[in-house]
Amino acid sequence: MKLYYAPGACSLAPHITARELGIPVDLVKVDIPNKKTEDGGDFWAVNPKGYVPALETEAGEVLTEAGIICQYLADQRADAGFIAPFGTPERYRQMAAMNFVATEVHKQIGALFNPALTPEMRTVQLGVIERRLKPLEQSLAGRTYAMGEQVTVVDPYLYTILRWMRIHKLDLAKWPNIAAYMERMGNRAKVQETLKEEGLPV
Ligand SMILES: N[C@@H](CCC(=O)N[C@@H](CS)C(=O)NCC(=O)O)C(=O)O
């Protein structure tokens, strides 16, 4: 399988997922602004949406959307306990959490990367982020991982996006449960291996 990624981007989520599960993936780095793969290929031809991550499966199909790629990878190792079986209440809880990360955390924190963001819009956006982090902070109280005591498919995605808080200089001190969660995730051996592989600070 080939994972198209950019260091530190949301593609880090499926990359961590693959590592956690021992699934070998060939990494293909993408120059996002120029839509070129590292070997000079046209990334538009891989993903017409122009963004990472994209996963080319063994069957040659290209899957996109970070949360879906993470679930696809986890389903390849269904017996690892990283994802609940389809049709179970727990799977729907995990899917709801993945959707929350995708639409309410990823897209809201990701909006801060927009270079055209005015100071006024940044303030508005920070308010939205604050409202999304509040229930997250509450849900992490007394929990080791996003869904409970066991690490699941939700964690690589949540961790990847919350890592961006540091880039945007958003202080995690006011979110002690989130800060502790980030430390726990960051200390996982497979997470550290993945960060090193992408050339990111551990
Ligand atoms: N809906 C997509 C969004 C992916 C996304 O925003 N990727 C960013 C990096 S984190 C990117 O490649 N952006 C470049 C672009 O949109 O042109 C997903 O959930 O995977």
Helix-strand layout with pairing:
Elements: E1 2-5, H1 12-21, E2 26-31, E3 36-37, H2 43-46, E4 54-56, E5 62-64, H3 66-76, H4 89-110, H5 119-139, H6 154-162, H7 164-167, H8 176-186, H9 189-197
Parallel strand pairs: 1-2
Antiparallel strand pairs: 1-4, 2-3, 4-5
Helix pairs in contact: 1-3, 1-6, 1-9, 4-5, 4-6, 6-8
Bound molecules: glutathione.
The site of glutathione (GSH) has 11 residues, from helix 4.
Keywords summarizing the entry:
single chain, 202 residues, alpha+beta, Glutaredoxin, Glutathione S-transferase Yfyf (Class Pi), Chain A, domain 2, 2 domains, 5-stranded mixed sheet, 9 helices, 5 strands, globular, binds glutathione
Q: What is the mean predicted local confidence, pLDDT?
A: 97
Main beta sheet: 5 strands, mixed
What portion of the residues fall into strands of 2 or more residues?
Answer: 5-15%
Q: How are strands sequenced across the largest beta sheet?
A: 3-2-1-4-5
Structural class label: alpha+beta
Explain the overall architecture.
It is built from nine helices and five strands, in the order βαββαββααααααα. It has 202 residues and is an alpha+beta fold. It has two domains: 2-80 and 191-197, 3-Layer(aba) Sandwich (Glutaredoxin); 89-188, Glutathione S-transferase Yfyf (Class Pi), Chain A, domain 2. A five-stranded mixed β-sheet has the order 3-2-1-4-5. A hairpin with a 5-residue loop joins strand 4 and strand 5. It is globular and about 45 Å long. Glutathione is lined by residues 9-10, 32, 50-53, 65-66, 102, 110.
